[in-house]
Each structure stands twice: as C-alpha cells, then as structure tokens.
C-alpha cells in the first residue's frame, strides 16, 4: 500500500502576550480543523509543498513568516485505511495583524491559544504536536 505524503506549516502569532495558532476548517468532508498543509506533488520536496500549500490555503508567503526549519514534527496516521505521513514546520507570522486569505478548500479560520487549538483539532497526535510546538514557540517570542 502506497504512503501518502503531505507537508505544511504550523503558524503561530504572538499578540497581547499570547501565542495563538492558526487552524483552518476544511470546506469538504468532516470540516475538520488543521494547520495549512497538502499533498506532496510528484517531484516536489516536502519543504516546497509546505510553502506552496501555506500560500494557497492561508495566503501567507515565505516573506510573511519566520520559519524555523530546524523545528519540525511528523505525524503518521491512516486516512481511509491508507497510511499518511505529514511533516510540519513551525513558523511565526511576522505581522500578527496580517489577515488570512482562505482558498476554496477552507471555509473558516481561527487563531487560538494552545488549549483551545488542541480541543478544536480533535486528534490526539495533533494535540501533542501543538503542545510540542507551543513549548518551542515560548522560547522564540
């Protein structure tokens, strides 16, 4: 069975002395909430995918973000009984007030502090990822 690979960025902003994570709500399926991410296209690296998907789904380019290439987290899980591997890198929005520009793949977005982001994500592995990235983000602000 072939592995589906995806990549994205977990974006945070620091505003009013609070770290908030960006979650996007899909406009398809179960309308779940995730950071910007997407499938790796043939011949594309995980890194290029993460940048492309973030631009497509949230409207943020590499210039809008401070991306921590040395801080990543990989999730492995199954979707429709097929293995999926998603790598995320941590990124800080340089201008906390900068608006999100959603694609048609998403119908809503929220900036949330850790606990609320974990609750909204709904998945245990994403909760652990967010906790890990929050711990690292605290040292970066």
Using brief descriptors, characterize the structure shown:
141 residues, alpha+beta, Nucleoside Triphosphate Pyrophosphohydrolase, hydrolase, Nudix_hydrolase_domain, bis(5'-nucleosyl)-tetraphosphatase (asymmetrical) activity, NUDIX_hydrolase_CS
Instruction: Quickly count the domains.
Output: 1
Q: Please name the fourth-level CATH homologous superfamily.
A: Nucleoside Triphosphate Pyrophosphohydrolase
User: In percent, how much strand structure appears in the residues?
Assistant: 35-45%
- Per CATH, the class reads Alpha Beta
Main pleated sheet: 7 strands, mixed
In whole angstroms, the N-to-C terminal distance is 42 Å
CATH topology: Nucleoside Triphosphate Pyrophosphohydrolase
Indicate the percent of residues in helices. 25-40%
User: Low-confidence parts lasting 5 or more residues at pLDDT below 50?
Assistant: none
- List SSEs in N-to-C order: EEEEHEEEHH
CATH architecture: Alpha-Beta Complex
Identify the overall geometry. Answer: globular
Helix run count: 3
SSE-based structural type: alpha+beta
How big is the Rg? 14 Å
Count the beta strands: 7
Mean pLDDT: 95
GO molecular function: bis(5'-nucleosyl)-tetraphosphatase (asymmetrical) activity; nucleotide binding
InterPro entries: NUDIX_hydrolase-like_dom_sf (IPR015797), NUDIX_hydrolase_CS (IPR020084), NUDIX_hydrolase_dom (IPR000086), Nudix_hydrolase_domain (IPR051325), Tetra_PHTase (IPR003565)
Keywords: Hydrolase, Nucleotide-binding
Domain Nudix hydrolase: 2-134
């Amino acid at each position: 069975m072939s592995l589906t690979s995806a990549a994205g960025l977990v974006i945070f902003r620091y505003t009013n002395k609070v770290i908030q994570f960006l979650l996007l709500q899909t406009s398809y399926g179960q309308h779940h909430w995730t950071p910007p991410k997407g499938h790796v296209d043939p011949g594309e690296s995980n890194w290029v995918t993460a940048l492309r998907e973030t631009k497509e789904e949230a409207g943020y380019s590499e210039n809008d973000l401070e991306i921590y290439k040395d801080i990543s987290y990989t999730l492995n899980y199954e979707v429709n009984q097929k293995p999926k591997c998603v790598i995320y890198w941590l990124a800080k929005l340089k201008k906390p007030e900068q608006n999100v520009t959603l694609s048609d793949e998403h119908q809503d977005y929220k900036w949330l502090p850790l606990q609320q982001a974990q609750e909204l994500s709904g998945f245990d592995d994403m909760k652990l990822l967010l906790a890990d990235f929050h711990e690292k983000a605290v040292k970066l602000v």
